[in-house]
Structure formats: C-alpha cells, structure tokens
Write a structure and sequence with these properties.
The complex is a heterodimer. Chain A is mostly helical. Chain A is 65% helix and 5% strand. In chain B, α3 packs across α4 and α3 runs parallel beside α6. The longest helix of chain B is centred in the C-terminal third of the chain and has 14 residues. Classes of the chains: A mainly alpha, B alpha/beta.
C-alpha cells in the first residue's frame, strides 16, 4: 500500500511521513515489550534459583549404617514394631530407653512412631556430607552417587525436598535436617496482623481527613509534603524509631508488664507488638497517600448527588465515597502489607530474635520472622543452610501469594456490590 | 404580573456570588413563583449555574465560593447563620447536568435519600416500597423499571438514569427542584420525556431550570430569566418576566439579540 496521504497531490501542506511515524510507533512498542520481558526474565531467574536450591540430592553420613540393623535379611524399613523396639532397646543406653518409656510407653506408640525413633536415636542421620542442586541432581545423578560412594562409603544418598511438611511444622534448630520455619511463619503472621490492625484504620482515617476535611492552608500542605517524604525514608530509620519509641520508650506497654500479660521469657519491649507497630509506622505513609488517591478518584458528581439529597458530610463519605474508594484503598493495602511482610532491616533493629525454638504466644512474645530467618540462614557457613533458606523463601512467597489472593478476593467482592 | 410575597417560593435579593476575588454574579434580584417552571437562559459563563446552585447552598462545596445578599425561602434567609445547609438541600432538591445515579440498585437510589432523612412509613403513610413506587411513578419511570428494581441504577439508559435522578430528588419531599441543564446530555426523545415530566411536576413542585436550549425554555417554562455577562465578565440578570413576554416582546436589546440568535 502507498504511504502517501490521499490528498498529497492536491494540497502539498503535509509531508509524506506516515511510514516514519509508523516506524517510531513500532520501535516504542518494542521497547515497552522489552521492559516487560526483562521483568519476567528476572522473576523467572529468581524462581529458578530458589527452586533449584530447594530440591536436590543430599548425602548423609549416619552414625549407624541402617543396613547393619537389618534382621535376618529384612531391611530396617520393613521390620515390624516389636523388632524395632528390640533394636531400640539394644542400641541405646538403659537410661535413655527408660526416659523414652516415661515420655510415652512403647506399647502405646504406633509402628511408624517407633521407626522414627529408631532413625532418630540409633541411625542418627545427622552429618550432611554434601548437597546438590535440582539441576545437578537430575543431570549428574549417577556421577554424584559414585563420588559420594568413593569419598564417604557410609553415607547414603537420597533425593530430598527441603520444602516438606516437617520443615513447615518444625521450630528453628541448629540441625539443618530438623530445622523448620513454624516459629518464623507464626511470628510473621502475628506481626503483620498487628501491623494491619494498627495501620489500616489510621491510614484510612488520615486519608479521609486530608482529602475531605482538611482546609487548604499552609499547615495541611506542610503535613501533606511530609507524609509524601516519609514514604521514601529508608526502612532502617523506622527500625531505629521503633527501637526508641516502642521498645524503649513504651517498654511497660509493649512488654505487656502494664497489662499484666508479660511473657516470662522476654519481659522486655522486644516483642511482636513492637515489631508490628514499627512496621505499621513504616507502611502508614504509603497507606495514607494511596488512600488519598483512591478517595480523590471518586467522581465529584457522586458527592454532589448525595449532598443534593440532604446528606451530611459524614453520610456522604460513609455511604458513597468510602464504598467507591474501597477497592482502590484495598489495592494499596495489599501492596503495603506485601512490603511489610518482606521487611527485615527494621526488625533487626527492633530486636527480632535470630534463634528461637518456641512459638510466639501473643503480642508480648519474643519473635522472629521469615525474612529474618532467611537472612540468618544465608549468613551461615554451612552449605545446607542455603538449601533451607531457599525453602524458606518459597514458604515466604507462598505465604505472600496466599495473603494477596485472599485480599484480592475480598476486594473483588466489594467491587461487585 | 407583580407577584405577592405569598406566591413566591424563593427569592434572590441583591445576590452577589464570588469565587475567591472574582465576582461571578452581580446584584441579582430574582423572584421565583410557587409551582411554576422558571427557566434561566443565557450565554456560557454568565453565571446561570452559579445562581442555581446558590438556591440550595451547593456553591459552598467549592471552597473559595462565598455570597453576599439574601436568598429568601418561605420568607427566611437560607444563608442565615442558624440555618443548616443540610436541611436546605433536602427541601430544595437538585438534578444535575449529567445523570449521576448512585452505583446502587434502582430501589436503593430512590430509598436512600428518604431513609437518610428519617423517612417513616406507617398508618396513613406509605411504607418504603410504596414510597419508592410513588416516586418512580411521578418520575414516569415506574413502568420501565418495576421488574428490575434490584438491578443497578447504572444499567439504565441515559434518559432513564436522569428520570431516576428526578425520582431520587422527589423522594425526600422537596418543595423546589433545581435542574441544571437536565437534558443537555440526552437525545431528543429522552429530552422530550424530561420536558413532559417537568410540566407534570410543576403541579406539585416549584421548578427552576437552567438551559442552553431556548426552544426548551420556551416550551417548558412559565417564567424566563435572561442572564448575560457585563464588561467585568460577571453574570448579571438582564431581564425577567413571563416566558411569552420574554420571547415575543423583550424589553432589552440584549435579550432580543440572544433569543433571535444574533448573539451568544
């Protein structure tokens, strides 16, 4: 097709530049596409790295080779309960066996529980001699097994998913095979719950005030500018603020001493409450700014219609402005909460525990969170902690996606009404 | 033609409206007769809507706006310090240029304002369902929506939405209905329906309508006020009188120029 404009022969006012304009359109389109591709490649790389580390072969040196425990040629994993109890009795000290009996008599334990006990106390698969990534495990499986056999004749090689039910359900441990994220997950959830409970009402309230009530004077303009700037303050600064105000300044409250709920294990201000309040401070400017945007986007015709019927300002806000702005407010809340879940730096300052083996019991508990746990594991010298860090990252991602899915579901329900 | 005070529903006296330092409307005296349709016409930017919005204190929603002078509603100045604008707006309702139903059901659109203002049904009075039906009947919309009262008001056509807005306005029992170019966003057939409706409603309500459409003013109104801009770009009232007189024997050259299409 000709790119000449139809009238060019008659009115020579316009250059025949259509092909140039089309070409630049194509170039721009390509650039935008490239940005999307870069983003997706980065995301794919992240997922690849994490998944690659979360699964793979692992070589474990046992204290006792399970093959030597076979009775009459029947391998350990196929033995019945009585035989297993016998093995247990023969291989642990009398005191240890009595202690196990006191915890729960052997007669009351199931066969699988006794088997787990044998593996735990007799075989003792403690010493990891090597781990391999998923890709290595799939491509060089035989070479790896041969290599392990040469270097560690007693070690057994098996495929291990570092992300497993046990990992999610176990507390922190110095043994990477036993360590889990339950404490950290509960800590993260309780902290973020505190954050939402505090930040959401305050953020929405401030947004309503600034948009609907505040007059346009120098004080409110100053306030507005400051809130915008606060959204850009590095999170560690909020951590220091939280340390000064919540952990130290408000210690009687945040430790629970004033309310009579102090956790005997802490009795200081380094609690879930302090962490949640600190993260609430951190996300508050984001929530306020976003809430204002959402409220501003409500068409003024809706407000006028409401006022025109004799509605008061509050009735207008409650019945029309807020319902219309809600989906926008929730979108911003999802983003802000996602950011808060991943925050590490301020919690380090506020005093998250790096090693903690019991679950948080309430707002006044000592705590750790998933990002802290991940950070702590990645900074250990042993290789296998990198594997559980990767598995913990997967847990964090799954947790984030689940929370967001719930929030988006809620938002869409509000939107439909 | 001179009206007694008792016949007047509302009256602007020496009304000046300012937006910041700018005087948008200058010294307007406008008596509005009860249960009649009064049209306000004039070129763009002459302050027609500003005057209309002064009648139910909607101008106050613009932070920089303030007024001087009085607007007497049943003899009482609605800008007096002891008058609550919320009550003024219930008794002087408004229909806007662009149909703006709430994003709620048709039923709720009508019921919300009534419920808000403490609507009480009961013996000798309609209950809410009956009241919604009555209002929709008065707005000539009932037959079209009676089977879909619980669908969104936004699912209606533009003309239906505007009639829903009228039903919503009369549901709070106003005495006066202000209409700000109510048909300018509608097609000719929907416009005709709105005009017919205005005639019907004038039996019960006082109507003040701002319009750009002179034929519409001639068709629907009993009285016409012609506004224009003076040299400071402030709106002024040039001429006010019965519609037939304004359109046949205007006394002012500017009115004649405007209605014959020589200007504006």
């Amino acid at each position: 097709m000709s790119t000449k404009s139809p009238g060019s022969g008659l009115i020579p006012f316009f250059a025949a530049n259509l092909s140039v304009r089309n070409r630049s359109a194509v170039i721009w389109r390509g650039l935008f596409q490239l940005s999307t591709v870069i983003g997706m490649v980065t995301l794919a790389l992240l997922l690849y790295t994490v998944i690659n580390k979360s699964f793979g072969l692992v070589a474990i040196n046992n204290k006792v080779n399970p093959e030597t425990l076979a009775v009459n040629g029947v391998p350990l994993e196929q033995l019945d309960k009585d035989t297993l109890v016998n093995i247990l009795q023969n291989n642990v000290s009398k005191g240890k066996f009595r202690q196990l009996e006191r915890e729960m008599p052997m007669a009351e334990r199931t066969r699988d529980e006794v088997y787990a006990l044998v593996i735990d106390t007799v075989v003792q698969p403690k010493d990891i001699v090597g781990t391999w990534t998923l890709v290595e495990s799939l491509t060089r499986r035989n070479a790896i097994i041969a290599q392990v056999h040469d270097e560690h004749p007693d070690a057994t090689v098996s495929f291990r998913s570092w992300l497993n039910p046990n990992f999610i359900n176990s507390p922190q441990s110095s043994d990477p095979l036993a360590a889990g994220v339950r404490t950290a997950v509960l800590g993260s959830l309780l902290t973020i719950l505190t954050t939402i409970l505090v930040a959401f009402p305050i953020g929405v309230g401030a947004a309503i005030y600034l948009e609907e009530y505040a007059e346009d004077n120098w004080l409110n303009r100053l306030l507005q500018t400051n809130i915008t700037n606060l959204a850009g303050v590095p999170s560690i600064i909020y951590g220091m603020l939280g340390l000064a105000i919540f952990v130290r300044g408000m210690e009687p409250i945040t430790s629970g001493a004033l309310l009579g709920g102090a956790d005997p294990t802490t009795a200081n201000g380094r609690t879930i409450l302090s962490a949640g309040l600190t993260l609430a401070l951190l996300v508050l400017p984001i929530l306020i700014i976003n809430g204002q945007e959402a409220i501003r986007a409500v068409p003024s015709s809706l407000r006028q219609a409401s006022y025109g019927l004799g509605a008061t300002k509050w009735q207008t806000i409650w019945h029309h402005v807020l319902p219309s702005a809600l989906s926008g407010i929730l979108t911003g809340t999802i983003l802000a909460v996602s950011r808060a879940i991943g925050e590490t730096a301020p919690l380090v300052v506020v005093g998250a525990a790096t090693f903690i083996t019991f679950d948080p019991s309430g707002p006044f508990s000592k705590f750790t969170t998933l990002p802290i746990q991940i950070y702590q594991w990645t900074s250990r010298p042993q290789n296998e902690f990198r594997n559980i860090a990767a598995a913990a990252i997967l847990v964090l991602l799954i947790m984030l996606l689940t929370l967001n899915a719930v929030a988006i579901f809620l938002r869409n329900r509000f939107q439909r009404n | 033609m001179p009206s007694t005070a008792a016949q007047l529903a509302i009256q602007a006296k020496n009304l000046n409206v300012f937006y910041g330092a700018f005087k948008a409307v200058k010294n307007v005296n406008l008596p509005i007769e009860r249960k009649k349709v009064t049209a306000i016409i004039g070129p763009s930017g002459c302050g027609k809507s500003t005057v209309l919005r002064s009648f139910n204190r909607m101008n106050e929603l613009v932070p920089s706006a303030h007024i001087e002078g009085e607007i007497l509603f049943n003899g009482q100045n609605i800008y007096a310090s002891d008058v609550d604008p919320v009550e003024v707006r219930r008794r002087i309702g408004m229909v806007f240029q662009k149909p703006n139903p709430f994003p709620k059901t048709i039923y709720e659109n009508v019921a919300w304002g009534a419920r808000l203002n403490g609507f009480r049904g009961g013996v000798g009075r309609p209950n809410m369902d009956e009241w919604v039906e009555q209002c929709l009947l008065k707005a000539a919309l009932w037959d079209e929506v009676k089977d879909k009262l619980h669908q969104s008001g936004l699912s209606l056509s533009g003309g239906q939405q505007q009639r829903l807005c009228i039903a919503r306005a009369i549901a709070v029992q106003p005495e006066i209905i202000l209409m700000d170019e109510p048909a300018s966003a509608l097609d000719p057939i929907a416009t005709l329906k709105i005009e017919d409706l205005m005639h019907e409603l004038a039996q019960e309500y006082t109507i003040i309508v701002v319009t750009h459409n002179m034929q519409q003013a001639a068709r629907v109104s009993d009285f016409t006020a012609f506004f224009t801009m003076d040299e400071d770009r402030s709106g002024i009232l040039v001429e006010f009188g019965p519609t037939t007189q304004i359109f046949t024997t205007p006394t002012d050259d500017r009115t004649e120029g405007y209605i014959t299409g020589r200007f504006g």
